[in-house]
Known about the structure:
This protein is of the alpha/beta class. It has 15 helices and six strands. The protein folds into two domains: 14-38 and 120-219 and 251-299, 3-Layer(aba) Sandwich (Rossmann fold), CATH 3.40.50.300; 45-119, no CATH class. Helix 4 runs antiparallel to helix 5 and helix 9 runs parallel beside helix 15. The protein is globular, with a radius of gyration of 19 Å.
Amino acid sequence: xxxxxxxxxxxxxxxxxxxxxxxxxxxxxxxxxxxxxxxxxxxxxxxxxxxxxxxxxxxxxxxxxxxxxxxxxxxxxxxxxxxxxxxxxxxxxxxxxxxxxxxxxxxxxxxxxxxxxxxxxxxxxxxxxxxxxxxxxxxxxxxxxxxxxxxxxxxxxxxxxxxxxxxxxxxxxxxxxxxxxxxxxxxxxxxxxxxxxxxxxxxxxxxxxxxxxxxxxxxxxxxxxxxxxxxxxxxxxxxxxxxxxxxxxxxxxxxxxxxxxxxxxxxxxxxxxxxxxxxxxxxxxxxxxxxxxxxxxxxxxxxx
Length: 304
């Protein structure tokens, strides 16, 4: 029996499973996105951010035009390279304001523009909204990429993200986000996959095969050559990002620089930087807050 036939027999959506890559920021989600997007049948756009708001607007009785407005008003709308009138025409054919249909219209248009039949999403912040997204989109499969929180803290500092925050606050945020995601995952049986960034970098193929199995997609070795076209794919984020909703604006150069390493093959030197670059005091402070979770996830915790 084919995967589609199994879904029909189980009374589930007949839509092909769609990967939603989530995680704490600076955990390697862009790297995983580029690997998956290199699959000849799968297109994953830049971060969307509008999905939860669109779903909430639909629940409040929003009409299709209002739902479309959530997409077109996204501050990074320009990243998607889509014609707004083409998207408007596609949404206009819908019967009612079903959020799933509107979202599928957007994702399919993006995939069609790249001559690919399947779509996915990579927005790290959706790690906090998996339940609402999963309820609206039965095809959503959540791929939670986890990275050693100490390296996350260093990466954030290197990008000027929260550099002024006490290390204990960064550790607390990392721990709470992951623990909350794991609680949400209990309601997502068969639709949630937890991966470690360190495993992805050390040996990508078996990790990518697990993702492909989750979303019922044949593995393709082109995913290992993602870096050959990474720079081209990242150019969609070369535009300036305006300030909005309390978030500061970012120049195109700054946005591109944040993901410069993804244009190269995976390298082991991206793992364990905390051993050399974190002071003993910082390590102790981080581990005092999140050491238990670090150990549970299989990370070395010298102070334990």
